[in-house]
Amino acid sequence: MKNILTFGEILVRLSSNQGKRLSEANTLHVNYGGAEANVAVSLAQYGYRTSIFSRIPDHEISKGILHYLKGYDVNTNLIQLKGTRIGTYYLEVGAGNRSSKVIYDRAHTSITELTPEDLDYETIFKDQELLHVTGITPALSDNLVQVTECLFKEAKARGILISFDFNYRAKLWSKETAGQVFKRLLSYVDICSCAELDFIHLLGYEQESERLSYPERLTTYYKKLSKEYDNIAVLFSTKRENLSASTNQLTGYFYTKGQLYESPLFSIDHIIDRVGGGDAFVSGVLHGYLSNWNEQNIIDFATAASVLKHTILGDANIVTEEEVNNMLNNGSQINR
Amino acid sequence: MKNILTFGEILVRLSSNQGKRLSEANTLHVNYGGAEANVAVSLAQYGYRTSIFSRIPDHEISKGILHYLKGYDVNTNLIQLKGTRIGTYYLEVGAGNRSSKVIYDRAHTSITELTPEDLDYETIFKDQELLHVTGITPALSDNLVQVTECLFKEAKARGILISFDFNYRAKLWSKETAGQVFKRLLSYVDICSCAELDFIHLLGYEQESERLSYPERLTTYYKKLSKEYDNIAVLFSTKRENLSASTNQLTGYFYTKGQLYESPLFSIDHIIDRVGGGDAFVSGVLHGYLSNWNEQNIIDFATAASVLKHTILGDANIVTEEEVNNMLNNGSQINR
Amino acid sequence: MKNILTFGEILVRLSSNQGKRLSEANTLHVNYGGAEANVAVSLAQYGYRTSIFSRIPDHEISKGILHYLKGYDVNTNLIQLKGTRIGTYYLEVGAGNRSSKVIYDRAHTSITELTPEDLDYETIFKDQELLHVTGITPALSDNLVQVTECLFKEAKARGILISFDFNYRAKLWSKETAGQVFKRLLSYVDICSCAELDFIHLLGYEQESERLSYPERLTTYYKKLSKEYDNIAVLFSTKRENLSASTNQLTGYFYTKGQLYESPLFSIDHIIDRVGGGDAFVSGVLHGYLSNWNEQNIIDFATAASVLKHTILGDANIVTEEEVNNMLNNGSQINR
Amino acid sequence: MKNILTFGEILVRLSSNQGKRLSEANTLHVNYGGAEANVAVSLAQYGYRTSIFSRIPDHEISKGILHYLKGYDVNTNLIQLKGTRIGTYYLEVGAGNRSSKVIYDRAHTSITELTPEDLDYETIFKDQELLHVTGITPALSDNLVQVTECLFKEAKARGILISFDFNYRAKLWSKETAGQVFKRLLSYVDICSCAELDFIHLLGYEQESERLSYPERLTTYYKKLSKEYDNIAVLFSTKRENLSASTNQLTGYFYTKGQLYESPLFSIDHIIDRVGGGDAFVSGVLHGYLSNWNEQNIIDFATAASVLKHTILGDANIVTEEEVNNMLNNGSQINR
Amino acid sequence: MKNILTFGEILVRLSSNQGKRLSEANTLHVNYGGAEANVAVSLAQYGYRTSIFSRIPDHEISKGILHYLKGYDVNTNLIQLKGTRIGTYYLEVGAGNRSSKVIYDRAHTSITELTPEDLDYETIFKDQELLHVTGITPALSDNLVQVTECLFKEAKARGILISFDFNYRAKLWSKETAGQVFKRLLSYVDICSCAELDFIHLLGYEQESERLSYPERLTTYYKKLSKEYDNIAVLFSTKRENLSASTNQLTGYFYTKGQLYESPLFSIDHIIDRVGGGDAFVSGVLHGYLSNWNEQNIIDFATAASVLKHTILGDANIVTEEEVNNMLNNGSQINR
Amino acid sequence: MKNILTFGEILVRLSSNQGKRLSEANTLHVNYGGAEANVAVSLAQYGYRTSIFSRIPDHEISKGILHYLKGYDVNTNLIQLKGTRIGTYYLEVGAGNRSSKVIYDRAHTSITELTPEDLDYETIFKDQELLHVTGITPALSDNLVQVTECLFKEAKARGILISFDFNYRAKLWSKETAGQVFKRLLSYVDICSCAELDFIHLLGYEQESERLSYPERLTTYYKKLSKEYDNIAVLFSTKRENLSASTNQLTGYFYTKGQLYESPLFSIDHIIDRVGGGDAFVSGVLHGYLSNWNEQNIIDFATAASVLKHTILGDANIVTEEEVNNMLNNGSQINR
Ligand SMILES: [Ca+2]
Ligand SMILES: [Ca+2]
Ligand SMILES: [Ca+2]
Ligand SMILES: [Ca+2]
Ligand SMILES: [Ca+2]
Ligand SMILES: [Ca+2]
Ligand SMILES: [Ca+2]
Ligand SMILES: [Ca+2]
Ligand SMILES: [Ca+2]
Ligand SMILES: [Ca+2]
Ligand SMILES: [Ca+2]
Ligand SMILES: [Ca+2]
Ligand code: NI
Ligand code: NI
Ligand code: NI
Ligand code: NI
Ligand code: NI
Ligand code: NI
Ligand code: NI
Ligand code: NI
Ligand code: NI
Ligand code: NI
Ligand code: NI
Ligand code: NI
Ligand code: NI
Ligand code: NI
Ligand code: NI
Ligand code: NI
Ligand code: NI
Ligand code: NI
């Protein structure tokens, strides 16, 4: 079993019932999310000792967050209780031909006030073997760009693996700023999640010819990036076909040592909750990679894990390794 | 922005949860509907100043109706608070291979007692530019046949556009009576929604040869009717394929000046609520027509609007023009 | 109208909301089930006078069971109120790519303590014309193996038809024991539900060549069994394709006098609740058989009944003969 | 065990959640009620074979009514499925200083069309020993005045006991008409529920001096009525103090052979649902009277039964004799 | 009918179910509040043409706010759609011996960015006859102190009545700052709500001797303030006894021309929602005052209105004048 | 901070909504309880490092239990995942004059199969400073009598404090057997919760004269027991007055060194959930005792803690020390 640290904002999510517009909702479901919290929860279900480094205010709503994380075996000792706001987002759950809608209310939150002075590296990195951060964290404030870089540098120095998921959010910052920051961060990264549009919009790559298949184009981008940053050992991403808000198709790609591995195409019908699907995928890859599985197993497992997430209400993928493998092998029988 | 008047009964709808038979329901969802109210609500979301002329009793349940309509920007000043019954219907929401079931409880309602003496044309038609009524209204009582005719005649005299949706309901009256009334009403109509079965069952047309495609047959009917009633400027309808109560396909048709325009075929999966889909379609056509869009845009928009309605619980299509266009152009992404 | 008796355990079912893992559920839906209760309820909706012979404790939860059965016209006079436990099962309702999960809590229940001494044949069999039992009943305890045999023997002696559904449950007993018991029971049976895997795993048949189609293989098994047990007049089963927990395909097979009849293949989308689908099928076959319908009608009706069950929350198929036929003939229109 | 018949309308009740105005409700609770149905249900819980004679339409909502009554052991064979409307009422559940509000929607219902020609006395009265009706039934239509009289006359002729509860409803008819009808009906009645205001407003009695205590005044009225109608064997009623919608005080009075018996004063706090409290009281009196209990036991039991009703959501008093007695004797312990 | 303007923040309120801690809540009820919105809604139910001047962002959640206000007849034309945050608060609903808890999340909200430059007096004050603001508004930002003063000055100049409710919130600002601001504002005020602690903590008055009764002390404070600010025509407040979170006692006081008027003491049991009780009281006073009722009627009505508010879930007092008077006169009967 | 161990069964509790009989419930609330789990949870909220030693099966429902305990900071490492049944109980939540009802379904559960061989003392007692058990644990099986004695003996040997709560449950065993077992266990106990009826029914004491006040009688019993078992340092209990299921009065008593301390009498109105009130009281006493508070503070705090528990749905007292003290000092204000 390995110790894993994630760093990012923990969010309160308030979602309407299916079929209800947010503007008509008179009850909202409460869940907790945030990309890095989602990864910490998912990896804890696979048996890792996970912690999240974050900051939230010291009040009742935070208690719910701590209850949630501890209940799912995430260590909360590194969460600082300070500041005045928790990041919140409203989710209008789509269905059929109406897509989901997210309204962020995450300005001025506690974590955005975190500065490099708040970092006690000894405590934070004690016994950690991997650090996972997504591009949402530096998007939240200038402070957090600095803090992320400090953490990456220090982790590197201590021989801790660094995992980075681009997770670009247009509602939080511009493509230009994000690209500049990501380029600096990439020089520390060992494990990296990014896809075609990230290369084109953020890293400034030319789009490869559409006559090439998607896997061919992706291989080209991944090759190029691996050359530029030879610290990056593995790259991965999914390709999603949106047939409707309820029906998607998903394929996973995993690249290492010049070779791209592709999962089967999964048909996802009757989607319950698509949010966190990317985090479930990243968690699956990290689990497979840290377990030294062969590449095809890694990408099949990670994509299946992501598919399974779509059937669970809430941001986090509350499933065990055994359940993911059952789904991969057996499909959808009642077990009795 | 234009002023629009609709005339018809406002209904209380009581619906069971999905998967529950009405006979087992111990809670029911309350919504408000009625074809003309639905059109008034939808057009208000597109920015029109809409009013509904109707009658409901003066009690608590009516308050809920007024709250609902005002909250969605429908002017309720023309609603008379009089009489003793509100039209009510029970909806057993279908799913998969079980179709929805409607039980009407709308006899003896307040609106059925409305007579031509109750009509104060000055107040009713003040500043109106279009009047919309469906075939349900005259189906409710003999009084309402008279009232509808009076309103049509007076609207015509004042140069107000008249929109009519056949909306034949077999549970309310016979095909014969409906046909006779509709024929009289049609001589006032500018804008008209009706489909193949209406021509055959209500207007007594011969069915065109099945060797003709549906659009070809429809063109024939529409041509014929346009000749008979040269006051009718545009005709339109949808064709629905019921794969199951959860999965449908929908195509829209719009006819004007001898030419039929056809929308793409929309696949609708994971239907939340099909009721009001026709009213959403009519509202979309009226919006496009009053905005002088080109014909293809009108029918694409109206059909997409109807498709979107299927994803919302309740009779009315609570969506903006921008949301319909997003769906037409982008499909079902999470927007964040 | 005929009198029908079933014998088996009545279960309390506690199920989570769709999208919720059982481990996160803070409310559970209460329904009542048990294969033989489900058949009794379904047949009562078709107009039969049904009774269930069973045993449950004498307390508040049992009151709910009695209310449920009486409310759906099942006679409860043969239910003994004795012992201390009610069989319970937890159902995690699957969706899309996540299958449903059942956790049984049915050891040491009241019915398992029933012995042949508790049987008052005069009362139990008074006016009965058919006895239905599934393989779950003898699986529950050694006592119940004995009791089932005693009932079969006595029913036979009284000229009462005997219907048996294999319903093998791996969580309750081994294939070996089940096979031995079933072989003894089969010598009393007139009407029998079993499928390919039952023949191979329980009766020890060789699997027929995969080059034969499924109907061909099934015909071979059924022929063989009919020869071995010439008391068996009809055999039937369904074949299910699990595309996902929400989307299945179902075909029904009915065999009699050397001939296999096959229903159309039904596509089932947006499944609400798959539990009890088999019991709905058996009930449909029993209704058709007792009504002397022709074979094709029997299998079409029974399979359609099973399909309809998938749209209803709860174990039992609360539909009328008319509703099944409507579905067979008309598909999924709103009826208004 | 005795056979008891009640005659009256069965109502669908739609109630808001506590704290919600009806005009804001987006879900409503479904229960079934009607004074005579409530009495039939309550007496069935005490072990009587009860039936209700009534009429409701033949559709899905009626199925729910039949399920409810059968589930609580009320025989529904005398319910005619005919006509088009079910009586419905909306209940805004009060709390604290806001009283409950009832909106009736019960004009033109099936039962109001019942005429003396629809009465098959042999079937209706077979094996009955007591007939219970309240003043609501003749209030519903002129037809029902006639039908009630016919039933009273015929019951009398057959030696069946007649129980009558005044239950005057100002929303249904005037005091004058009610008084005239009640005076005619009283000449058949053996067992009668009425209180001070009934004497003054309906029977035209002078109010007794306020210097007399309530029990003294009531004794005077009861004496007088007993003289006038010597067929009346027992008279009874409750006196309620409304401290708030959540807190009441209740005392029961039972009069027979010149003597008034008074229950203790019960304090009722945290009222869940007051509707049906009177019917629970009447049921308690009928049970005690038919069981030949002594007078003090009768009135204590009946008042305690009514008190218990206030703790149960829904119109009917779903409690056993044992539970009423436990409450009388032990108050409110957890039993474990 | 009069035109009334209020000015203040509109809040989203998220509240847990009774008996649930906020930290365990998995659903929250959505309501809308804010002291000035509550007053606008309540006065609209009494028949006034009310408007609220405010600012909220332009997104889905704001749509819900607009729907709510329009549905309750509050004009929303003066609400500016600008900025990024809506004020939010979490409410843990207390019960019995556990008090309610409020967590504010209202920093950096849209309204706090409003400046005097944003004020278009012509539009804002068109046809207004009274302006109501509470002390919460200037507490929100320095900008809003300025804006409030500007509005008061301009209203005064236009002869518009000014109503001010102290509504001191310790979570928003210090007593010192509040006191200084309030003193400046008071010189414009005609109608003023404040109580003993306001005088002592905010205005720096000495506490009057405890040997004086509360009404006597209050009279002294009111006299003094009336002398200091002879523009203030009426003063009023309530005194609340907290027996528990579910049981309170409330008395209202109204002072004018040297005379204090006192309502009866109201016992409030089974409190559903205490929030907004003060706003309901102020609304009642304003209604009585603008209607020129006599003083005792004003204070009885206003206090009864406040009491009624405690029975309704949500911040606003959705009751009519008739309902308040019914409660005053009749207590808690079911009306049927 | 101290380390505390409890030993006992963890229960799944399924409770109906207020106002619903268990027999009508179609949803049940899921909570987790068990006296010793409740104490572990409550003490964890006061800051202790608590663990529970128990056994539950290895399946989905147990996952919910572990999530719950970990989320509330209870160490679950000593919980063995073995056996087949979880103890379950159904709770019909009473209200007003109807008391709550508990139905146990806890025979044959995992923990009853625990034997002394399963005890690894080193692991179990590592770092523990206090062991708490209630009389429910030995009531569950003969095995558990033995196991409890072994644990008490071993704890004693290790100098760990032993806390014992009589918690006699008539549904689990006879008074005689319980008395014999408790007498043996008492010789190890340091801290003991028992009340008058325990002395009389279980320990065979004579009832003291009713002319003595309750505190006087209790002092006599406590003195006597302290003499018999001089190992017992403190004794305590509550006295409850059941005015109704919604309204109680509670007084706490704490005895040490010959002296009885009495809390104020607390009025508890609008009870949400009384279950676990005793465990909340014991937790409060343990916290005060381990914190060396003075005796009056201990009993006031513990009784207030118990009172607060009545306002929270679920078995455990999810409150902090600060919240209990706030309630003691301030009553029920909204804090904003
Ligand atoms: Ca992502
Ligand atoms: Ca979540
Ligand atoms: Ca339509
Ligand atoms: Ca609607
Ligand atoms: Ca089956
Ligand atoms: Ca069921
Ligand atoms: Ca009554
Ligand atoms: Ca009821
Ligand atoms: Ca206030
Ligand atoms: Ca206890
Ligand atoms: Ca709990
Ligand atoms: Ca509890
Ligand atoms: Ni939901
Ligand atoms: Ni939790
Ligand atoms: Ni995510
Ligand atoms: Ni629903
Ligand atoms: Ni669905
Ligand atoms: Ni419609
Ligand atoms: Ni549900
Ligand atoms: Ni089944
Ligand atoms: Ni409810
Ligand atoms: Ni039922
Ligand atoms: Ni209460
Ligand atoms: Ni009643
Ligand atoms: Ni709620
Ligand atoms: Ni609304
Ligand atoms: Ni307020
Ligand atoms: Ni609940
Ligand atoms: Ni306990
Ligand atoms: Ni309550």
Q: Kindly state the number of beta strands of chain A.
A: 15
Q: Tell me the number of helical segments of chain A per DSSP (H or I, 4 or more residues long).
A: 11
| The CATH topology of chain A | UDP-N-acetylmuramoyl-L-alanine:D-glutamate ligase
CATH architecture of chain A: 3-Layer(aba) Sandwich
Ligand inventory = calcium ion, nickel (II) ion
CATH superfamily descriptor of chain A: Ribokinase
Which regions of chain A are unreliable across 5 or more consecutive residues at pLDDT < 50?
A: none
Structural class of chain A: alpha/beta
How many individual domains of chain A? 1
> What percent of the residues of chain A sit in helical stretches (DSSP H or I)?
25-40%
Q: Bin the strand percentage of chain A.
A: 15-25%
CATH top level of chain A is Alpha Beta
Principal-axis shape of chain A: globular
Classify the oligomer: homohexamer
**N-to-C order of helices and strands of chain A:** EEEHEHEEEEHEHHEHEHHEEEEHHH
Main β sheet profile of chain A = 11 strands, mixed
Quote the average pLDDT of chain A.
Answer: 96
